[in-house]
């Protein structure tokens, strides 16, 4: 069911350039891009339960590998592929080390990776242009044509990430990752090679980010370390996945769509409040939506609301315990 | 006949504490052996050493002629060396069936997830949990959680099964049921090491008993030999138990 809904949603997004203007197309690109990033995060954060904040490291490296390849004269498509493979290899090497950490330690380690990669890129000025950033060869065509093309590519990446999600969900890999999420020692004891499975999840969480980063670099035509390795991005993406429902198939897509639209709405109406939305959503998630939008039992919620109005708060407490 | 599992001078120190020291014994194919000793004797540590959870401080573990001393737990599982946990370790949010299929898919011979579920259902029926296959594992009572542990390890099609206190926390009739189950498992040809801190529980099913005390193996013999062993009486049983056993046996 959710597969059909995602297909319909993707087609609807793809039709936007035909019926709407450049502004709407730009939002659709943003939606597709963040959906792909949130789907990627879902492999490690949702299926496996490892709270990764490395998204911006993979995205930023993808930006730079893609941009440098294009500047070396490669066609954009080849540059994107190199970025994808390069970031996947980076994640495989790194995963072997960082996935020994668990829980909060893993979270801190994964966020440190963003800072370290950013520092390396910005200090290595002779190659990366340092803090001045890099120009990327612009795509040919009118802005409308370029925007539509980028949208289709981002939608293809989102589609690819979703197909990968569905395949993983139904395979041994996905089953093993869910075992690791629930009880890593027990998973080990029934024969799951936890190290290899976690590395596979980490690589999956990275490669689509690398691809998205490289495509993004081609689209915007200019990248710099602050923008590419943004801490805001690295926090936003997991929040989107959690908002929709971590570990579900379509949750990250739902969360990314809702988040981008909310952000756009706040941006347009209350410019100075824009950053506050992230904080509000985080607080909201922690207190009210531990399972995400897709996991709410809407019927129960209505019942609970009407019960709460008349009775005490004991219902809410028992519901919370069931979750925990 | 050579042993299917053999421990040679196995030792484990945690910092300065010696939890297992210089333990040697072998399990023959198809045997049921009881490993007993008071709490803190090192029984669980021994299971952890055999299954790769802890690394050996010294000694060797030989399984089917192969030195497996440096294996990881998942490798032990795939080799056919399965164990249950003293403190049950379910995948709480998965169904009972999914829990057991994990054993079949990753540790057993099942090719895919569908084959794993089929094998899992068979093991659930065997241990008497067939009717709760689709309940979440977290909803089970303690005796049923112990059965779930058992089904999960059986789904791995082990040749050696290490049962760490599967009877702890059960009442007398539940223990009887569990022991019957263990005898049936043994009937399939699985070699079983049953670990207990109470001797009376394993006396009826064990062909041989090992006694661990302060990390050392102080006895290895038939139940009769062991309960009459002077060191075992002094260290573990107390004179009263030996008297009663003599009268009863
Ligand atoms: N991971 C560990 N770290 C440090 N000490 C441990 C560890 N595991 C067990 N021990 C110690 O080893 C000894 C044996 O424990 P254990 O094997 O659990 O005994 P049993 O299972 O016979 O009750 C105890 O003194 C215990 O405190
Ligand atoms: Mg123990």
TrEMBL record, chain A:
Q: Where does the protein end up?
A: Cell membrane
Record field: transmembrane: 27-44, 78-99, 106-126, 146-168, 199-219, 239-262, 274-294
List, alphabetically, the CDD domains matched: TM_PBP1_LivM_like
A GO cellular component term found in this entry reads: plasma membrane
Superkingdom is Bacteria
Ribonucleoprotein listed as a keyword: no
The annotated topology with respect to the bilayer is: Multi-pass membrane protein
Q: Name one GO molecular function term.
A: branched-chain amino acid transmembrane transporter activity
For whether the record's keyword set contains Membrane, the answer is: yes
Q: Which UniProt keywords apply?
A: Cell membrane, Membrane, Transmembrane, Transmembrane helix
Q: Where, if anywhere, are coiled coils annotated? A: none
**Main localization of the protein described in the UniProt heading:** membrane
A single Pfam family it belongs to is BPD_transp_2
| The protein, known as | Branched-chain amino acid ABC transporter permease
**Organism whose genome encodes this protein:** Hwanghaeella grinnelliae
From TrEMBL, chain B:
GO terms for MF: ATP binding; ATP hydrolysis activity; L-isoleucine transmembrane transporter activity; L-phenylalanine transmembrane transporter activity; L-valine transmembrane transporter activity
The residues covered by the ABC transporter domain are 5-239
Q: Which InterPro entries match?
A: AAA+_ATPase, ABC_AA/LPS_Transport, ABC_transporter-like_ATP-bd, BCA_ABC_TP_C, P-loop_NTPase
For the keyword Nucleotide-binding, the answer is yes
In terms of CDD domains, this protein maps to: ABC_Mj1267_LivG_branched
Keywords per UniProt? ATP-binding, Nucleotide-binding, Transport
Give GO cellular component annotations, separated by semicolons.
plasma membrane
The record's Gene Ontology biological-process terms are: D-alanine transmembrane transport; L-alanine transport; L-isoleucine import across plasma membrane; L-valine import across plasma membrane
In terms of Pfam families, this protein maps to: ABC_tran, BCA_ABC_TP_C
Q: Does the keyword ATP-binding apply?
A: yes
Task: List, alphabetically, the PANTHER family matched.
Answer: AMINO ACID ABC TRANSPORTER ATP-BINDING PROTEIN, CONSERVED COMPONENT OF ABC TRANSPORTER FOR NATURAL AMINO ACIDS-RELATED
Q: What is this protein called?
A: ABC transporter ATP-binding protein
* Protein source organism: Hwanghaeella grinnelliae
């Amino acid at each position: 069911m959710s597969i059909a809904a995602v297909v319909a949603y993707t087609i609807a997004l793809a039709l936007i350039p035909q019926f709407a203007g450049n502004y709407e197309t730009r939002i659709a690109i943003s939606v597709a891009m963040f959906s792909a990033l949130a789907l990627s995060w879902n492999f490690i954060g949702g299926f496996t339960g490892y709270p990764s904040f490395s998204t911006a490291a993979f995205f930023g490296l993808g930006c730079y590998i893609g941009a440098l390849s294009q500047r070396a004269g490669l066609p954009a498509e080849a540059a994107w592929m190199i970025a994808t493979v390069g970031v996947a290899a980076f994640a495989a090497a790194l995963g072997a080390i960082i996935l020994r950490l668990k829980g909060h330690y893993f979270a801190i380690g994964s966020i440190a990776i963003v800072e370290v990669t950013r520092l390396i890129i910005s200090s290595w000025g002779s190659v990366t242009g340092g803090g001045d950033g890099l120009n990327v060869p612009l795509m040919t065509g009118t802005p409308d044509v370029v925007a539509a093309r980028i949208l289709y590519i981002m939608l293809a990446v989102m589609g690819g990430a979703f197909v990968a999600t569905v395949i993983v969900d139904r395979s041994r890999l996905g089953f093993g990752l869910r075992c690791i999420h629930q009880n890593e020692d027990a998973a080990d004891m029934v024969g799951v090679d936890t190290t290899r499975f976690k590395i596979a999840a980490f690589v999956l969480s990275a490669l689509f980010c690398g691809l998205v980063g490289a495509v993004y670099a081609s689209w915007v035509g200019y990248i710099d370390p602050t923008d590419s390795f943004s801490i805001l991005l690295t926090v936003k993406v997991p929040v989107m996945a959690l908002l929709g429902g971590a570990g579900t198939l379509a949750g990250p897509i739902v969360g990314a769509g809702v988040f981008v639209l909310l952000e756009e709405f706040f941006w347009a109406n209350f410019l100075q409040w824009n950053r506050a939305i992230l904080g509000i959503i985080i607080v909201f998630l922690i207190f009210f939506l531990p399972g995400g939008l897709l996991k709410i039992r809407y019927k129960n919620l209505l019942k609970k609301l009407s019960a709460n109005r008349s009775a005490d708060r004991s219902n809410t407490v028992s519901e919370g315990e069931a979750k925990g | 006949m050579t042993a299917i599992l053999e421990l040679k001078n196995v030792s484990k120190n945690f910092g300065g504490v010696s939890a297992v020291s210089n333990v040697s014994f072998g399990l023959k194919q198809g045997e049921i052996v009881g490993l007993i000793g008071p709490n803190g004797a090192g029984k669980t540590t021994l299971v952890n050493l055999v299954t790769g959870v802890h690394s050996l401080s010294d000694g060797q573990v030989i399984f089917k002629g192969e030195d497996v001393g440096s294996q990881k737990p998942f490798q032990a599982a795939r080799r056919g060396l399965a164990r249950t946990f003293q403190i049950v370790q379910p995948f709480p949010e998965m169904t009972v069936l999914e829990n057991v299929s994990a054993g079949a898919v990753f540790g057993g011979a099942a090719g895919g997830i569908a084959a794993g579920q089929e094998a899992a259902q068979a093991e659930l029926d065997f241990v008497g949990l067939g009717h709760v296959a689709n309940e979440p594992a977290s909803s089970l009572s303690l005796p049923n959680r112990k059965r779930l542990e058992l089904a999960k390890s059986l789904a791995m099609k082990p040749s050696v099964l290490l049962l760490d206190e599967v009877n702890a926390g059960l009442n007398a009739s539940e223990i009887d049921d569990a022991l019957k189950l263990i005898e049936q498992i043994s009937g399939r040809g699985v070699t079983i090491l049953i670990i207990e801190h109470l001797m009376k529980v394993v006396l009826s099913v064990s062909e041989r008993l090992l006694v661990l005390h302060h990390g050392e193996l102080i006895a290895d013999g038939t139940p009769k030999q062991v309960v009459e062993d002077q060191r075992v009486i002094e260290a573990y049983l107390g004179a009263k138990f030996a008297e009663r056993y003599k009268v009863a046996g």
